Amino acid sequence: MRPRNDQRGESLIEVVLSIVLLGIVASAWFVTYSNETRATALNKDAVTADTVLRSYAEMAKDAVRGCDTTNPGTFTVAYTIGSPQWPSEFPVTVADKQGDQPIACPSSPNFWEPLTIKTTFENGSHSRSLNIDLRAP
């Protein structure tokens, strides 16, 4: 008996096309996974930056409570870089409307002192800022 010609198996072209198709699918998966990992890390840093900004704003509100409205001066917010609350990768810069340091106390309870708090992350390529109005007690 002679073998039938329709049972010859896979051709070289079919095998090569299968390997190329698997490579394309694997590459697409790898790119998607890489982008997702980077986006997750960036989102985590953005959440940490927001936490740092809000913590600094709360400390500024606490510091302004010590201001004397009869003789307005300045106040400072003390924080330690490198502590769990203040990671060193998230430096904080502060500017009031004059851009002075230390920060001017509000002159009266009816006067708000605008304050812009900013932090950068991802080696300075991203930043977050928070604008608050401080009022004397």
Overview of this protein structure:
With 137 residues, the protein is of the alpha+beta class. It has one domain. Helices cover 39% and strands 21% of the residues. It contains 1 helix and 5 strands. The chain has one helix at 12-64, and strands spanning 74-75, 92-96, 103-104, 112-121, 126-135. The strands form 2 sheets. It has a 3-stranded antiparallel β-sheet with strand order 2-4-5, covered by helices on one side. Strands 1-3 form a two-stranded antiparallel sheet. The longest helix is centred in the N-terminal third of the chain and has 53 residues, at 12-64. It is rod-shaped. The mean pLDDT is 79.
Kindly summarize this structure in a few lines:
The protein has 137 residues and is α+β, with helices and mostly antiparallel strands. It is 39% helix and 21% strand.
Shape: rod-shaped
**Structural classification:** alpha+beta
Domain unit count: 1
Share of β-strand residues = 15-25%
Distance from N terminus to C terminus (CA atoms, Å) equals 104 Å
Topology as a string of helices (H) and strands (E): HEEEEE
Q: Work out the oligomeric state of the chains in this entry.
A: single chain
Largest sheet: 3 strands, antiparallel
